[in-house]
Design goal:
The complex is a heterodimer of chains A (289) and B (424). Chain A has helices at 12-51, 54-69, 72-87, 91-121, 123-138, 141-152, 156-180, 184-192, 197-231, 239-249, 252-288. Chain A has 289 residues and is an all-alpha fold. With 424 residues, chain B is of the alpha/beta class. Chain B has helices at residues 44-49, 57-64, 93-101, 123-133, 149-153, 155-160, 164-177, 193-206, 223-240, 251-257, 275-280, 285-292, 296-299, 302-305, 319-328, 349-356, 380-388, 409-418, and strands at 7-9, 31-40, 67-77, 82-86, 108-113, 116-117, 134-137, 211-215, 243-248, 260-265, 268-273, 312-314, 333-337, 343-348, 372-374, 394-397, 403-407. In chain B, strand 10 and strand 11 (268-273) form a beta hairpin. Classes of the chains: A mainly alpha (289), B alpha/beta (424). The interface between A and B is medium-sized, with 22 and 29 residues.
Chain lengths: 289, 424
């Protein structure tokens, strides 16, 4: 009586399975191709990061931190954080993590910025895309892993694609908002002097939307980092995997080391990209009015 | 044009300084707007096709949900004319000026510029039209914040595809014209509102357009700067002689700047006329209300209140005739003209009486160089100082020095006292 009746069962799972099978049968080669391209980019970035000696990377991060945040103390703190990650024995894993984040962010920007531009141009496109973006961000992060796993198999490639899907909404959204918020009269003036759409985009809209876009880049990067950690569940060798292993073995100390390494990376990436976006905001504020 | 009005005491006023050449009334219009309508809403054409076309703006909104912005606008602007479109917000004036650039497409009607049908232009021709024929100055300046003053001024030329050297040279030139020399490398945010608008004007002038469209360019500025900018625009127009279409909500600005003014309300043009015509005969209560605040002394030109002279003698006439003319007119002086009605000066009754006794005396010997003169478009306000310490009437003379009529001090006082201006 009080049980939910079996007869009302909607076989959504079967439908999804069927759809997935169809995709795999028919679009398999396409995903193989995408996977291969993704892997090449990923390996390239990873190899570069692993090729550069650790002290050079620490020096570069320190320099960037000093440039972006304007204080030597911050530069030193961040250099020490990186040093600690290395001392835990996680240097290579940290670089692998960074490689996936960088690749995912790169692809996100290549897709996301043009998508944001189209969204700003077309109200209809905006209305279509917005609920999809909302959905992409509301879905539990694990859910991405399943189709990614199905389409690309195990490893860092599916992790990268899952990361892209999870991390791309902010840059699309903020590009859209940034362009839409360019003052109407400035665009009108550009039109009045005979500029076409492309000239208006590159001379007016993108430069004025830059601060907003950079905030989007910052958010996308942070979300990518969060997702990469979860991506370890489908076999991406990242810092997250160490946490996962530590949980399974109930090794609190090891889990803590891996966990704090992720936090350090998050702090470093966030502060530096955030500071660059901030600078832009200030510059825009100064010249904006 | 108020810039070529001259006022002066003594007869030495140099007529050649006046450039009141061909009157614009005789030339073919450069801009013709014919029954232009603009309706905003989901089905603008449907509104125009239906019977609702004749309904009032509020009824159209209530019944169809469409906003009527322009109703059957017909205007003609002559080359070199300073044409002001005046109205309160919501009157459609800003829509109308945007239609002239085709930043807004009218729902119906025709727009001819140089006898070309601008609304029929394709993409390329429209772009050319915007790059070469018209330029616009915006209320909120519309400057690019990430461009320097120089780059902003050169923007129109950049859009036109001119190379960097050429466009920057031209931009420097126009920046100097608007008084911004030395500011080229600053960003607009470093400039005051008035200076930013100078950049806007420089940008518009840089493309050397035939027609300058100005959409409330000074209304964002504080009153002192606004007045200064108006004066400078008048000076600038004196040398540039562009066709200017200027939108404003400020009647004083309209009266000060305009050769002709079109007054708009609720999307309709309700009166077109010279500043004097509008102040003298407001078309309806709406215009009258506007005009109430206007000071007639600032609007009326000498030509509109001048009268036929009471006492005129000709140079070849003798002192005894002059004496009779002066006495008949119940005055103690008279204007002296020569054969071509050129003003030669005045004679006074006492001089005439002294000379009338002798035979064969000539007037020439007693002509005084004391006449007060002004041009026909000098404003009454400016005549006041002339007559305030003199008993003579002011002679109105044209560019070549021909005598047109006289403005009696009494008339000047009448006009001045009719309405003491609210803002002096």
């Amino acid at each position: 009586m009080l049980e939910f009746p079996q007869s009302l069962r909607v076989p959504l799972a079967d439908w999804v399975d069927t759809a997935m099978d169809w995709v795999l049968d028919n679009l398999g080669p396409l995903f193989d191709f995408l996977g291969a391209v993704g892997l090449q980019i990923l390996l390239f970035v990873e190899n570069v990061l692993l090729f550069i000696p650790w002290f050079v990377i620490i020096a570069v991060v320190g320099y960037l931190a000093w440039k972006a945040l304007g204080r030597v103390s911050y530069a030193i703190i961040m250099a020490v954080m990186l040093l600690l990650i290395g001392s835990f024995g996680y240097w290579d894993l940290a670089m692998s993590t960074l490689a996936i984040v960088a690749t995912a962010v790169l692809i996100s920007l290549v897709i996301g910025i043009p998508a944001g531009i189209f969204m700003a141009w077309s109200n209809r496109f905006e209305a279509t895309i917005k609920p999809i973006l909302d959905g992409m961000q509301t879905l539990p992060t694990f859910v991405y892993l399943i189709p990614a796993l199905m389409l690309f198999g195990l490893g860092k490639v599916p992790a990268t694609f899952a990361t892209i899907i999870y991390a791309i909404p902010p840059v699309i959204r903020l590009t859209n908002v940034g362009i839409r918020e360019v003052p109407r009269d400035v665009i009108e003036a550009a039109r009045a002097f005979g500029s076409n759409r492309k000239e208006i985009l590159f001379d007016v809209q993108l430069p004025l939307a830059r601060p907003a876009i950079l905030v989007g880049v910052n958010q996308t990067t942070m979300m990518a980092l969060a997702m990469v950690v979860i991506g370890s569940m489908i076999g991406a060798r990242t810092l997250g995997m160490e946490v996962l292993v530590a949980i399974n073995r109930v090794e609190i100390g090891q889990g803590f080391e891996a966990g704090i390494s992720i936090v350090f990376m998050a702090i470093i990436i966030d502060r530096i990209t955030h500071a660059f976006a901030e600078h832009e905001h200030e510059a825009a504020g100064k010249s904006g009015e | 044009m108020s810039d070529n009005s001259t006022v002066g005491a003594g007869f030495g006023a140099d007529p050649s300084s006046e450039t009141n050449g061909s009157t614009p009334e005789e030339e073919a219009p450069i801009v013709r707007i014919e029954s232009v309508w603009k309706v905003f809403g989901p089905d603008p054409k449907g509104v125009l096709d239906g019977s609702i076309r004749t309904a009032s703006k509020t009824d159209i909104l209530a019944e169809s949900g469409h906003v009527l912005a322009l109703r059957d606008i017909n205007l003609e602007v002559k080359p070199g004319e300073f044409y002001v479109i005046m109205g309160l917000s919501g009157s459609g004036k800003s829509t109308l000026i945007r239609v002239l650039e085709r930043l807004i497409e009218p729902t119906a009607g025709h727009l001819y510029v140089n006898d070309e049908d601008v609304l029929a232009y394709g993409k390329d021709k429209l772009s050319q039209y915007r790059k070469h024929t018209v330029s616009m100055v915006f209320q909120h300046f519309g400057l690019l914040p990430h461009y320097t003053v120089l780059q902003n001024a050169a923007y129109g030329l950049k859009a036109r595809g001119e190379n960097k050297q050429a466009r920057e040279a031209k931009a420097l030139e126009v920046l100097e014209t608007v008084g911004l020399k030395g500011w080229e490398d600053y960003f607009p945010s470093a400039l005051s509102g008035g200076m930013q608008q100078r950049v806007g004007i420089a940008r518009a002038l840089a493309t050397d357009p035939q027609i300058l469209l100005m959409d409330e360019p000074f209304s964002g500025l504080d009153p002192l700067i606004r007045r200064q900018m108006q004066d400078e625009l008048v000076d600038l127009q004196g040398t540039l002689r562009k066709t200017i279409i200027f939108v404003t909500h400020d009647l004083h600005e309209a009266l000060k700047l305009g050769d002709r003014i079109a007054i708009m309300r609720n999307g309709e043009v309700i009166q077109i006329g010279t500043p004097e015509e509008i102040v003298a005969e407001p078309a309806d209560d709406y215009v009258e209300e506007f005009v109430q605040d206007a000071s007639p002394a600032r609007v009326f030109a000498a030509s509109s209140i001048m009268q036929d002279p009471q006492a005129v003698v000709y140079r070849w006439q003798g002192p005894s005739i002059a004496r009779r003319v002066i006495i008949d007119a119940d005055r103690d002086w008279a204007f002296v003209l020569d054969r071509n009605r050129l003003l030669k000066g005045i004679v006074r009754l006492e001089d005439v009486q002294a000379h009338a006794k002798g035979r064969g005396q000539q007037l020439t010997d007693i002509i005084r160089d004391e006449a007060l003169v002004c041009s026909p478009d000098a404003k009454v306000e400016d005549l006041f100082p002339l007559v305030s310490n003199s008993s003579y009437a002011v002679a109105v003379v044209d560019d070549e020095g021909h005598f047109l009529g006289e403005v009696r001090p009494r008339r000047i006082f009448e006009v001045m006292s009719k309405k003491e201006t609210t803002d002096a």
